[in-house]
């Protein structure tokens, strides 16, 4: 590969986005909601997760309820009050969803990188 081609390859990056949607094409869950669920699992609190991500609690709660409705199962278990305050944790199905989406995401990223590398090679970039 000559230096000009090497420079072109290094200056080009592939951007992509994927998400789950219903049959009508309405988005259910993508990277943003996945990140929220991961943060809830990490912090044990919807409030802490939204604060860490700089997003609003109310909108996030509504978005998560929409996901639950679309998927047909609960993602969150809320426990109120007590001396240490309440907590929000993922249900077992919620944990499985986060884990499966993480594995899916990892596989897709690897496959996309392989396809992009082939594209660059075939196009002489």
Which helices and strands occur, and which strands form pairs?
Elements: H1 3-11, E1 19-21, E2 27-30, H2 31-43, H3 46-53, H4 57-71, E3 76-79, E4 87-90, H5 92-123
Antiparallel strand pairs: 1-2, 3-4
Helix pairs in contact: 2-3, 2-5
Question: What's a quick, concise take on this entry?
Answer:
The protein contains 5 helices and 4 strands; from the N terminus they run H-E-E-H-H-H-E-E-H. The protein is an alpha+beta fold and 125 residues long. The mean pLDDT is 88.
Care to describe what's here?
With 125 residues, the protein is an alpha+beta fold. It has one domain (28-123): Winged helix-like DNA-binding domain superfamily/Winged helix DNA-binding domain (Arc Repressor Mutant, subunit A, Orthogonal Bundle). The chain contains five helices and four strands. The protein is elongated, with a radius of gyration of 19 Å. The model has no long low-confidence stretch (mean pLDDT 88).
């Amino acid at each position: 590969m000559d230096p000009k081609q090497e420079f072109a390859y290094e200056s080009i990056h592939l951007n992509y986005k994927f998400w789950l949607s219903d049959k009508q094409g309405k988005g259910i869950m993508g990277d943003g909601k996945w990140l929220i669920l991961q943060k809830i699992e990490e912090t044990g609190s919807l409030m802490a997760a939204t604060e860490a991500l700089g997003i609003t609690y109310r909108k996030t709660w509504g978005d998560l309820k929409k996901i639950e409705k679309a998927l047909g199962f609960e993602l969150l278990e809320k426990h109120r009050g007590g001396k240490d305050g309440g907590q929000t944790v993922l249900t077992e199905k919620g944990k499985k969803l986060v884990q499966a989406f993480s594995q899916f995401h990892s596989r897709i990223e690897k496959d996309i990188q392989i396809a992009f590398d082939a594209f660059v090679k075939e196009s002489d970039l």
